[in-house]
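Both lines are quoted verbatim for reference:

——
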Amino acid sequence: MLGKIADEVERRLAVWGLPVATWDMARSCGKLYAGRLTRNLPQFHTHIGLTPFSPSPRNIHHDVTQPMPLEECIDIYQSEDVFEHISYEKLPHILTYVHAVLKPGGLLRMSMPDYGCDIYRDRSIKEGDRLVFDPVGGGKYENGVVTGGGHLWFPTYESVTALASASPFSKWDVLEGYRQDGSAIIKPVDESYGRVLRTSYRDARVSSRPRPLSIMVDLWK
């Protein structure tokens, strides 16, 4: 169904004389963004988006869980608040696909809600001490199953650094998040690589007591 909708959007854009983004444009741009880019995002002017929903002049019709027809030509790949909507078991493959398209020295900047943060933890539904559903993250929780695009897992320092450690990336660094003991990590962020919206220094929810909201990790090829 989503593929048919995307095909129809692409057909209409062609009828109207509006191009859609292509892999050749991605090669020339050198910066990819996991998710649909809209004009309100700063990456709209610097990156090419990847979305299974609506291709457009700034977005390629692509499912980020699949390989890309590129090889070592991308400088930066950014993913913000996307990977928590994908099952944890698929993420090692995705990181491998991203690694394959990055140039030597290229960067993957990924950020996800950190469930070491009280804001996310307190709003989530629990069974005992176990988080089972974040109602603000979208989707539905019925009969023990999350459907409709909600958060399929609950990122923490342990789970995200395990992904990074098992990936083919040569080095990685956690810029914001909560360590296993609950202590906060807040390091300087070079936003020339990609601005992140939900941070200790930008999100209004933590303006009165700055602290991490997301676990933000830079991984270098």
